[in-house]
Design goal:
about 290 residues; alpha+beta; two-stranded antiparallel sheet; 16 helices; 6 strands
Length: about 290
């Protein structure tokens, strides 16, 4: 790809094609050595940056005066797709950047075309577009960019009241949960709040105390606490079951189980033998 040397001061800083968030010039350090002789800034006919926004910032920070630039004719759709596909292939855009890209390109391109020409890694639909403004709120962006909030959980939170959303974002920002666990936390809180006719934020504050966050493996402890809050009767039965097992001094070769959700008083006993001979002896004793 041929290019020409252009002064940085002549390049427009208009962010019409920029969806880098947060700006990360450091991820392009060493790119000149990786692609020697190639123009690493692409501009349109109005000399607005199409691709290479972070590299441009890196040049400015290094007090460079000019750069090798490729200038071409691009319409907004072509420019945004070029920026997305090159950037995503080189250093993998974060979720926040992908959503910013969608907000910009959806104004000039149909969803079916975006899906066909951009590898987003998630489903692009009208429901997502309707929630973009909330998803890209300043409170959500840092967690999306850092990988601390998955898209499915973010979509659920977009429908929450602002106070409830803020409370959950605070939790996910402090404690790293997997995607499935984030969704489980949200579901338990929603169900408990509905059942008790209280807000999600108040249930979360009453259940997840600061001391709980400081424990070893806080994710599991938090889920257990929310489970007890959601199913108090079942949790009491589980506690009683564990206490009964301790008092009963169950031998190692025995394993006990209860009926699912304690729906009946049945107790299942599993007896393990080390070989067939011992199994036969045990069976004789049981008879």
């Amino acid at each position: 790809m041929p290019g020409s040397v252009m002064k940085l001061q002549d390049i427009s800083r208009d962010d019409v094609y920029d969806f880098t968030w947060p700006p990360q010039p450091q991820r392009l350090e060493g790119i000149e050595a990786k692609f020697p002789g190639l123009p690493l800034v692409v501009v349109d006919a109005a000399q607005r940056i199409v691709w290479g926004h972070d590299y441009f910032r890196l040049l400015l920070a290094g007090r460079r005066k000019d750069a090798l630039v490729f200038e071409g004719e691009f319409n907004p759709t072509e420019a945004l797709l070029l920026n997305f596909n090159l950037s995503n292939r080189l250093f993998e855009l974060n979720l926040c950047e992908k959503l910013l890209f969608i907000r910009k390109i959806s104004r000039c391109c149909k969803l079916v075309e975006i899906r066909r020409r951009a590898e987003l890694g998630f489903a692009l639909n009208e429901a997502l577009l309707e929630r973009l403004d909330v998803l890209l709120d300043v409170s959500m962006r840092p967690l999306l960019a850092a990988g601390q909030l998955c898209l499915k959980a973010a979509m659920r939170l977009a429908d929450f009241a602002p106070r409830d959303r803020k409370a959950l974002l605070g939790l996910f920002g402090k404690i790293g949960f997997s995607e499935s666990h984030q969704l489980q936390v949200i579901q338990l809180l929603e169900e408990t709040a509905f059942r008790k006719k209280r807000s999600v934020a108040s249930i979360l504050a009453a259940t997840v105390r600061p001391a709980l966050l400081e424990q070893e493996m806080p994710q599991q402890k938090i889920l257990e606490a929310l489970q007890r809050r959601r199913f108090p009767a079942l949790s009491r039965q589980e506690d009683e079951w564990r206490q009964w097992q301790k008092k009963a001094s169950i031998p190692n070769r025995l394993a006990l189980g209860h009926a699912p959700f304690f729906c009946s008083g049945e107790v299942r006993i599993v007896l393990t033998a080390k070989d067939r001979l011992e199994a036969e002896e045990l069976l004789k004793k049981l008879k």
